Amino acid sequence: MKEEKKTRLDTNKDMMSEEKLAKLQKISLFAITWPILIEVSLQTLMQFVDVFMLSFVSDEAVAAIGVVNQLLIIAFVLFNFAAMGCGVVVAQFVGARKPKDVSATISSAMVMNLLFGIVISAIIVFFKEPLLGIFDLSPALMVHADIYLVIVGGTLFIQAMVFTIFSVLQAQGNTKDVMYVSIGMNILNIIGNYLFIFGAFGVPQLGVMGVAISTAICRLLAMFVLFYLLYLRVEVKIRLRDFFTFQKAYVKKILKIGIPGAGEHLSHSASQLVITMFITVLGTVALSTRVYTLNYAWVITTFSMAMSKGMQIYIGQLVGAGLMDYAYKRMYRGLKISLLVALTGAVILAIFGEFFLGLFTNDPDIITIGAILLMIGVLIEPGRTTNMVVISALRSAGDARYPVIVGIISMWGISVTLAYYLGIHLGFGLIGVWIALMADEWIRAILMLFRWRSRKWQNMRLVEDERSTKMETTA
Prior knowledge:
This protein is mostly helical. The protein contains 17 helices and no strands. The chain has one domain.
């Protein structure tokens, strides 16, 4: 009798696993990822367009905005922890088919991020002088940086909402919605930049201030559209009173993923901030070269970023459905594709580096040094791509602490230390800094791969499948 019950239970579990697998296979990794690829490409394009159009103002304007963006990136990380954690939890609840839990998670994350975003915006505006003062910028650069920081930094709470809704829509599989909104943001951003930088159609020619205003307006309009889309897409509607109620169980799950995930990103951003401070010692040419080169580096990593986001959604849903072996294999497939694309892009940039940099500037020093950095990028990209994809997969499975611990040790012990030693102490400049970045990326990538192969993440699932529990109880 006991054997019959056990056989029936195993059969029921197998049937349920096959049912889950069949449903999740219909939503392939490619189907999730291609709209994200376009969305990430468009986000990268926004940065690219801003830098390109600002280059018509001056190299000093580009250098100033590059410095400010290092501060803003840290702010993004601080309020992105809720968006990231919410995305992972929502993906697992979607995989486990729990729509009520999905809505409760979303409402908790949105309130948390709005409040946090407002606080961060206020801190940036009121403490802008000491924040910019750490870079010891020249008066010419400080004028541009101050204006941009006040306008864009003061409206960061809007970006907090945009990030959160982007994350939850994608976690539910609605990646096309995010793609369409990103397309609209880019079109408006290009139009706004053109009007304010060149003073077209009688619009005041505001330069850096105009770019900042254009960015803020685009984000505000995107936020309103995203709120509407979210209302349409959630299966269980979120009520107004839900936004005034914190449910500890959901907040705890969000923070379990969000805080370590944010810690890793914060460590990376802070380490890059310190490295930027090193580079300021090298002068405006070095700062401008860094900004131009990193913009092309972001173009290369666009596909890897999209794959990592898609991986987070896909692996999260698979883990939520209890399909661990399938999740394990699919990560490797996505990683192989990402590496192939990233290496191809890096090689193309390395070969035609001087031509691409010449699109931004005529300064021979910037072009020469930047071309060398793009060559080093061929060696950096495999490590960077592996980190992006594998860390996203680990995080989506609930294993968020290991990447941040390894990241803090490597970023500060290797990246920052070597950047100073090679770039400043030994006098290799930006080339030394880039070698330090390469060492950091590769060491972390190797450790992340070992972690995935250990399968320890399989015991860190955030949700339980109620139907499995019921079936076991009934049996």
